[in-house]
Structures are given as C-alpha cells and as structure tokens.
Amino acid sequence: MESVAACMRAYAERLDPSQKDRWIIAGLLHDMDYEKHPTPAEHPYKAVEQLRSMGVDEEILTAILGHAEYSGTPRSTLMAKTLFAVDELAGFIVACCKVRPNGIGDLEPSSVKKKLKDKAFAAAVSREDIRKGIAELGVDETEHIRTCIEAMRARRGPLGL
To answer: What is the pLDDT of residues 33-90, one digit of tens each?
Structure first.
C-alpha cells in the first residue's frame, strides 16, 4: 500500500496538486481489508464500509471500489483511474526489485517491460489490469512505468527497496 501511495503522490503532484493528501490516502487505504478479507465477495467492500462510517469522502471510496475490476464500479475521476493504473504495477515493480542486486536503485522501465513479458514472473500480477490502467489513464507505457519507479525510488528506504 505504501508503494501505491508513493505512485499516487507522484501523479497527484502532476495532475491535482491541491488534492495530493487525498490521493495518498486513497493509495494507503485501498487494500486495508485485503489480508483479513481477500475474497471478491468482501474486498474492498469491507474497507469501504468501515471508511464510510468514519466519514471518508465518496471520491476516495469510489476510487477504492474501482481499483477492484470485479466491483463494476466505474473509474470516472482522475484519482480512480490513477489508483487502478498504479496498483498492479507498483506490486510488480516491488517484485522486480526483489530479484535485482541493487533493488530499485538502477531499475529502468525497459527491465520492467521485459519482466512483464515473462508470464511466470510474479504470475499473480494481472498484466491485463496494468495494460487497461495505462489505457484508461491515457499515458505512455514507458513514462508510466518510469513515473512509478521514480516515485518508489524516492521512498526507497521506507519501502525497503
């Protein structure tokens, strides 16, 4: 969730600077229920239910719902599109870092793109969600990967990368 929040921060600084904190919050909270409620019947619905009871605003809640493709929640805001676009990719970048001697230190988009072609590597990561997220956000694939790498590199220490 911290990696997703780092990517959300980078995009918010570019796309919606006055709302940066809200974008970071969406990134931090989007999977808060996953360990306890990992099934599509419960995730992310349990988190959204709890957050709604705490007064979290609907844009954040809708973005959280929209990051789960199976929820059927439309991603109509930049926040929601960005959360979906960075979620699977951030996890994939973490996996890439784990097999590199320098972690994220010298990771380049070309290395990530090469690993994306290897279906056995980080097999649980949905390549289709990554492709769909990039298309929905309307960004160049290489630049999107670079934005996420750089955002995570800036938080390398806390992220353990």
So the answer is: 988 999 999 999 999 999 999 999 999 999 999 999 999 999 999 999 999 999 999 9
Q: Residue 55 CB: number of other CB atoms within 10 A?
A: 6
Instruction: Count CB-CB contacts under 10 A for residue 146.
Output: 16
| Confidence (pTM) | 0.94
Tell me the two tokens of residue 42.
């419960």
For 113, what's the count of Cα atoms within 13 Å in the CB-facing half-sphere?
10
Alpha carbon of 67 to those of 100, 103, 110, 141, 157: distances in Å? 28, 27, 25, 19, 26
* Residues belonging to the chain: 161
Quote the longest CA-to-CA distance of the chain. Answer: 44
CA distances from 48 to 12, 25, 26 (A): 22, 13, 11
Residue 139 tokens read as 């960004």
- Which residues lie closer than 8 Å to 38 by C-beta, 6 or more apart? none
3-state helix, strand, coil in the chain (%, to 5): 65, 0, 35
Side-chain-facing half-sphere of 79: CA atoms under 13 Å? 24
Give me 69's structure tokens: 């493709």
- Tell me if residue 114 falls in helix, strand or coil: helix
